[in-house]
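#struct-pred

JT: dropping the chains for the assembly here, can someone run the whole complex?
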Amino acid sequence: MNRVAEETWRARVRGSLLGGAIGDALGGPVEFQDGRSIMAEHPDRLRTFVSGPAEWPPGTITDDTQMTLFTVEGLIRAGVRTDRGLGFTVAVVQHAYDRWLDTQTQPGPTGERDGWLHAEQWLYARRAPGTTCLNALTEARKGEPRIPQFGAEAINDSKGCGGVMRVAPFGLLPAMFPTDWVFDSAATAAGYTHGHPTGKLAAGTLAAIVHEICGGATLDAALDTATALLVQHPNHEETSTTLSFARHLAATGAERGPVTVERLGGGWVAEEALAIAVYAALACPAPEQILDALALSVTHSGDSDSTGAICGNVLGALHGETALPPELVFTVEGRPVILQLADDFALEFTEASKRLHGDYGPHTTWITRYPGW
Ligand SMILES: [Mg+2]
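RK: done, full complex below.
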């Protein structure tokens, strides 16, 4: 990558992670609220951070962002691992989710885990974490098959959106990682907790969309490529049909509101969450419409924080960080950590990493922060 291309890519990485957090925080307080009652309170759709249940202050992020940050950390560690000649191992991400589990079961950092993200006290907050994620990761600790491989026998039959809502960072990996590899790796990472084919395939599709966008594709072209990969997999029909309906709704100019969004479902399951996010992004495609898209993606009766998070992941990658609404960037919870992870991800996956750690080189501060496992 030349320097200009690297700057653009870095803006997409920051935009996607920050955009996801903003969508998550926008939708979190209304996750369990009916679309009509949201519209009654916010006639122009929900465009500002509001307070959430259990005294969440405006701008509070939820499990979607927490898990996405651990995905980023896991990918950086997998990158560090390659310097030891071990190859890029997606299973490292499973260990990152295991550390996330600590944040949901312990009052604070135990000091017994390595790295730095696990030591962030603010992440030790339960924000309606997905039961499937908690159960599957708890079972994995008990010695259940820890790393179910893609296509292998499932550990459960869940296609909840808890897989797709955390895998966008796979799409942020640079072009040296081919898009079909990104698809399959994200699907595998979703499969650590979600055993149903749709839970994995929707995740693979999202990562492929984000990866194509980061390579310079338009959203439509990215959707074409991701769909072409999707339909090569068995059991793709649920995801491909719902995604195609989302594109149809956007193309026909259906009224932008909860009634149209809810024709795609509630987003509690993976293919619907992806479809709602894609619909909102397609319906409001310009950089200056990014808040319209995010508002559309969260104003409905379904799983608003996850649909908002995915929409923000896609549009943040597409338009870059400066397109994000400044009043929401400014107040979203966890911004310092989100941006530090984004920048560390960019450092790890560019030439810069050679100066942070080297082939079988001496132990460095970087490796203390990101041990290669
Ligand atoms: Mg959530």
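JT: nice. Confidence is low (pLDDT under 50) at residues 149-154. The pocket of magnesium ion is lined by residues 62-64, 127-128, 305-306 (CB under 6 Å).
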